[in-house]
Amino acid sequence: MLTMINPNSLRAADLKKKFAVFGSFYRIVIGGQEVGCRSLLELVAHEIAPDDPNQLANYRPDLLIVMMNPGSSKPIDKDYQPPLLKRAQDIAPSLQWMLTRPDNTQYQIMRVMAALGFKHGRVLNLSDIRETKSPVLFKKISALSSLADGGVHSIFCYERRKELENLLGYQKTNVPVLAGWGRSEALLPLAKQALERLNGFSIYGRATSDEKVLFFHPSPMLQRMKEHWVDTILAQMSEKN
User: Each residue of 65-97: pLDDT tens digit?
Assistant: First the structure.
């Protein structure tokens, strides 16, 4: 149910007062190279945030969000060194939740959550690789795809199926999924893989075509388009609830 709040009137300072942001970071060796990654991001209302953020993995979110990749996301603690892992099976047991600096994309998600009265959003990514430049990310993903373990940077890959199943263990029909991984056709293999794993969930987003495989990013450059994205998502979700 929509609240009376106008989400597009909420600025970064307002949203920081409503939500805390926690990320789980790691480094992993793929094909003999170290890759910096972030697995999960939790957007949590301050009123329900646990004293121990590592308990967040046990929380059932109000909303799942699937994005392209973490971009420039990083812990607020500049001295924090994420664990270095060698196998995909080590990711889930090694994760720690750290206070994380929010960005414009996450503020867009918070606006949707605030309007819907949601207290907890969980962000997954098609790729966990922390890379700010999309063309560079696509080249990295393409290079990794030829390696035997080259897909483990995605939580939707076969090797990480148990990790994903544990995260998606709640009733599928009650947790909406918001897709916003962008329009690049370079993402098609990862997007299709994610949609297969998310079969059974109600998926929302501004699809780029009738096939509903690619979805517009939540934070386009123009302010009016940012507001249009928020309004579109809220209209979709209120229509089905």
Answer: 999 999 889 999 999 999 999 899 999 999 899
